Automatic annotation (TrEMBL):
Membrane topology term: Peripheral membrane protein
Principal subcellular localisation of the protein: membrane
PANTHER family the UniProt entry points to: FLAGELLAR BIOSYNTHESIS PROTEIN FLHF, SIGNAL RECOGNITION PARTICLE RECEPTOR SUBUNIT ALPHA
Localization per Swiss-Prot or TrEMBL: Cell membrane
Domain AAA+ ATPase, residue spans: 173-371
Highest taxon of source: Bacteria
Name the record gives this protein: Flagellar biosynthesis protein FlhF
KW Ribonucleoprotein (keyword) present: no
Function, as annotated: Necessary for flagellar biosynthesis. May be involved in translocation of the flagellum.
Region (Disordered): 48-69
Family that this chain belongs to: Belongs to the GTP-binding SRP family.
Amino acid sequence: MRFLGANSREAMRQVRAALGDEALILANRHTEQGVEILAMAESAAPTSSEVTSYKQPEPQVPPAREVPVSTDQAQVQAFEAMSARLLEEMRDMRALLARDRSGPEAGGTAGEQFVRAILEAGFSQALAEEVVASLPEELADVEALDERAMAWLVRQLSKRLVGLDDEAAFMDRAGIVALVGPTGVGKTTTTAKLTARYVMRHGTRPVALVTTDSFRIGAHEQLRIYSRLLDVPMYALNADQPVSDLLERMKGKSCVLIDTVGMSQRDQRVIEQIGHLRGGNTSVRLVLLLNSASQPETLEEVVVRYRQAAQAAGGEISDCIITKLDEAGRLAPVLDIIMRHGLRLLFVSHGQRVPEDMALAEPVSLIEQCLANRVPLARATTSPTPPDNSSRGAGNLLGQGRRLATVLLALRERLPAFDGLEAVWNLLGLPASVQQQRFDALLADHPRAGQAHGMLWSERRRVPGEHWAMPDVALNAEGTWLALPLLQHRQVAGQQARLESALQHHDAGVHLMNGLPDAEAGDWLERQGLSWCSQVRGSLRVAHAGERHSLAALESMAEAAGQVRCRFRGAPARLMLAALPVEVNFKGSRRERSGFDAQAWFGEVRDAESGKALARRYWIVPAGLSRDPEPLLLALLQADVLPQLARRAWQRLEPTEAGDLRGDVRLLMASGLATVAAHLDFAEDEAAMDLRAELLGLGGGRRRRRDVALLESLLQLFLVRDAIRHLGLGERETG
């Protein structure tokens, strides 16, 4: 029987359900749909005696023509070898069945293990599903949550917890800050702690304290004691008085902290209180205090009600402080609520001492603390539910929105000129005349000073099946492609002129080319002493040891130079390298000379798993190249995919759906998406792994070719971004 599952564990579950625990696995393979297993019931398998009888059949009447004994023996040996391999695979798959039968206690799938770890730390199921929806393919088959897996989990959770980059970002900002929250949350003590930090940083002169708490007995006196100790003035304000009534008395005070009346989140007067704080023309920053020892349901209600009250009063609450951390059994529930509501966590308070028992919130440290104190789930009553990416309700819309914003921010920080690509997309839907004006202004300043360290020059011919040529791509000093390419038809004519222009305007000192440079350009590169590398055909004739041969014919003479990991056509591969010194003539050279000294590089691309040869590539670099050639060779190899990805994106950007869209704008949008998708597919660092997973999660699925899946996800990301942008504008611009 044939079974097909999304992964090996799912397929094995189907096998066990249909054939029982003693099923025999005959074969398994990976397909585009998942993992395919061929299995049979043990009762249907031949017995050892049957196998023996098959190997040693009953004597037969000899045929008229005698078959050599050696041939018969070879057949028997081949069958025995196949049987041994089959039995070994049966043992391996039987062990997998045994592990699968143990169920969640043995760990479960990678997604289930991550969900369980998040729940055991005290975070919610909704947050767990949101996080695991972005599980990278590199971690999809982990057997246990090892150090690498836990590091990914810490990164995913901590990036959802927004804090201050440093204390100065809060302390050096002048204005009025009001601490709000329920009764007993610790507002007065926290006010004193913040005041002490202001005084330590700015002195006593610019700081003032204000209390509006006239309900509690001794409330004024408690804050007054702190004001005397800190040597700062304190003012009392009735609950129904606007802050503007005190402005005349607080002239010269740049830092004013208000200790407000504690009110239940269900008290209707919360709206009135916040309205009085914001009365007049005074700008007041509201900071919500959350008691980490409270029940999650209570904390959820506090956040929702207080933010609604602030909105009703014409303000907003975007900052918070956690209090009474020393009294909390678990930290994760309050952090979960802060993350899901998109609040910024400023400080964490953990005791009564002023100001010692308050620290700047450090997201990574707080998340590590939560995960270090996990409590095993009661399996009889609670078990983690694997995330279901196919149906996301309205409750996850905020989470999806945050993920979209996070992905865009990460792309801006990672890829140079990504803001330029966004600016090109902003032209979508504008009248053609407006597009032209803004398009010209945008490209006149691209690349910006210091962005382009090198150039990847595309072939000077049309992409097959299209009427346009792949734009050129600039590289920064780290070798990262700029997200916004450069259109070929907007550049000067002539190869040498283009090289000179790139050096003059962008200080580009590295040039990657398809094909050898022509004679004039080659001579100029030699005179300038610039680094360059050309990807060429195997039929290129060069001189070696006084004789001329094609590069392909010389490959066997090249000296092996190791191997590097790479990706080829969206899948992991290995590039086997070899090198050979040669002499090469530039194209179109009319001078009488033997050629210039160069190094020929030979590359064989092999599948990372099977070792099967996939492609061969050839490169020429100058013999005196002053840098490691491997990054240049890889960049040219990886650039092979750009025209294909750009063509796919071009076809998806139909003018009928996008509205008025100039051809050159459409080409830059498509080629920019291709450049970003290819970069993310090739990059191997952890940040790229996380970003890939986030993108593929937003795209709603994964394909066999990861680069294509990334391109589709980027396209969806930009389309959603554009829709949101225009909704914010209310209508499309007209001029």
